Amino acid sequence: MGKLLQVRDLRTYFYTQDGVVQAVNGISYDLSEGETLGLVGESGCGKSVSALSLMRLIAQPPGRIVGGEALFEGEDLLKISEEKIRQIRGHSIAMIFQDPMTSLNPVLTIHRQISEALELHLKMNKSQSKQRTIELLKLVGIPSAESRLNDYPHQFSGGMRQRVMIAMALSCNPKLVLADEPTTALDVTIQAQILEIMKNLCRERGTALILITHDLGVVAGMADRVNVMYAGYIVESAPTGPLYKDPRHPYTHGLLNSIPRLDEERKEKLIPIEGLPPDLINMPDCCPFVPRCAFAIEKCKQQNPPLLPVGENHRAACWVAPRREVAR
Known about the structure:
The chain is of the alpha/beta class. The protein contains 12 helices and 12 strands. The strands form 2 sheets. The chain has an 8-stranded mixed β-sheet with strand order 6-7-8-3-9-10-12-11, sandwiched between helices. Strands 2-1-4-5 form a 4-stranded antiparallel β-sheet. α4 crosses α5, α5 (126-139) packs across α7 (158-170) and α7 (158-170) packs parallel to α8 (188-205). The chain is globular, with a radius of gyration of 21 Å. 38% of the residues are buried. The model is unreliable at 324-328 (pLDDT under 50).
């Protein structure tokens, strides 16, 4: 498969009264056509900001994309004109935002919010866009779709609003979907239904997906590959199976140790990651995970490691990770 997206050294900062917040601090990765990439990490590690940067939706001020490139089908999303990026948003690249209640417009009907993109990007007339909207609502499992066209967001449940968001994202058959915490605040039954819908639709249409979440269980069942983020950096990147079977960064170890396992007998309490993430305004020159790391050596306190190969298609930003016997 060809490379659909190539991100290189992406940096996004926020300039505040207290100082410069280094939200995304030089991340690089590739995404192939039809591939699902999981982006995981604690809250505040830069996951959502990195996705908003690709869409050029960072509020300026205080935010600013200060460096890097994001090549989408050979075009740099960070350098093309505002007119060109507006043509790409919602058409070639779509985004499912974190909270559908605040992302959907409360004073516009569901029909209008979906049909707007169809009329703008695909040049459909009102009759065509109405029919397509009904098809999309049925596709994502909204019952009695025809009768719900003129309803407003507040008339839908949380799960149904999320389905509407997915319908909007897929309306123009995008090549890439950015899903930012698509199952937040949903109960586990609805969460499973939403993920199954997304998985099936992406597989049927060959759509690439970047799934942003802090839920490692969600990623395990959805993603082909996983990038683990910490303090604005990607600290580990690997195919999903090897990452879960043999995590090499201490932070990834900590994330996996802090979630319950259904396939093992419960013997001990879960092990949390001690301490707090670093202050993004005063970032250290060393590895940002050092204060919370049980495996840190002197070199970790002196220099921030790059992503180093630790296996086939497996990289970790850790001086200790290549020492397999220690990293375990």
